[in-house]
Write a structure and sequence with these properties.
Radius of gyration: 13 Å
Order of helices and strands: HHHHHHH
Number of domains: 1
Shape: globular
Number of helices: 7
Strand content: under 5%
Largest sheet: none
Length: 115
């Protein structure tokens, strides 16, 4: 499943898209960005940090993550996702509306996708 704005998250469509695609391209991100994503997963996910990280950075299905990480409720995962998205600015120290600073060569692609 591709990007879809999460209504319960206090971020704009563009900000959510930026965060989503930054996470999905985790392996192509600079080490500094990878560390920031990991740190925010730890803070937002708590005991479910690894499940949150897998959900945000791969295309593994939600159902499989819930099963593999023994998470009893989708709500638990979604609360962690919300904390992650809303905590993004605090974690990075930069505004989420500046894609070129985060994505470098991916910024142009992201702008095309979210149009």
């Amino acid at each position: 499943m591709g990007f879809k704005k999460r209504r319960g998250v206090r971020r704009t469509y563009d900000e959510q898209g930026l965060i989503y695609f930054t996470c999905k391209t985790y392996r192509q991100q600079p080490r500094e960005m990878q560390e920031k994503i990991r740190e925010l997963c730890e803070r937002a996910g708590g005991e479910n940090a690894e499940a949150l990280f897998v959900f945000l950075t791969t295309h593994v299905s939600r159902e499989r993550i819930l099963e593999e990480y023994h998470i009893g409720s989708e709500t638990t995962l979604y609360r962690a996702i919300k904390r992650f998205f809303e905590g993004w600015e605090m974690s990075t120290g930069k505004r989420a509306d500046s894609p070129s600073e985060y994505l470098g060569p991916y910024a142009r692609i992201l702008r095309e996708i979210v149009r």
